[in-house]
Amino acid sequence: MKKTLKCLLLDDELPGLTYLRMLCEQLPQVEVVKAFNSPERFLEEYKSLDFDFFIVDIEMPGFSGLEIAQLLKEKPVIICTAYKEYAADAFDLEAVDYIVKPIRQERLQKAVEKMENLLKQREPLKDFIQMNTSKGKAILFFDKLLHITATEPDKRDKCATLTNGDQLILKNVTFQYLLSVLPPDTFCRISKKDIISLKAVQYFSFDEVTLILKDQRPVSLTIGDAYRQHFLELLRR
């Protein structure tokens, strides 16, 4: 599920503000926290509101949209205006996009997608996952995880080996899901039944990899033909 982007709207012309709000509310990933038709009210209230970005007009009484963007440098902005000549100034302020009125739904959608990509890049990367295990819910830190393998006889469960030598049974989880949440430059699937942390690799050959666990006990695993090329590419990086 996509994260909802919370935004503020600012346009001194009420019909334009109402129309912009209507367009934003038709975008499933956008939540309009509040709409303002006064720059002064906006500046009085924005610090108390939880929002990810804002959309602002340029020519307004009291403060221009460019001045507002300058004051709120920590928040990304989309500029919507009837005037083309401010585009260079807007991008000097690192506006995410510049939309010339009248606003079209598909144009606003593209601007929001740019905003979505920017905010995704700014998100702090998690260094753990939460999993259901045979002992209850557990937090697994990526740097503590060495090896995950399918269990016998129920392959729906997986056995995770940690750096301290402990093992946890991960309940009813697929390899596809695990690969989607594990860091792709650190973890690699090497066969139908094994995912490994590359930092645990001690030796490898064409068809076998040897892991060294906490007690220095070597564990040799077969590299499947379908997974060999990706494994070797990761080691070259």
UniProtKB/TrEMBL annotation:
GO terms for biological process: regulation of DNA-templated transcription. Pfam families: Response_reg. PROSITE patterns: RESPONSE_REGULATORY. The modification 4-aspartylphosphate is found at residue 57. The keyword Lyase does not apply. Residues 6-116 form the Response regulatory domain. One of its GO terms (cellular component) is protein-DNA complex. One of its GO terms (molecular function) is phosphorelay response regulator activity. Keywords: DNA-binding, Phosphoprotein. This is Response regulator transcription factor.
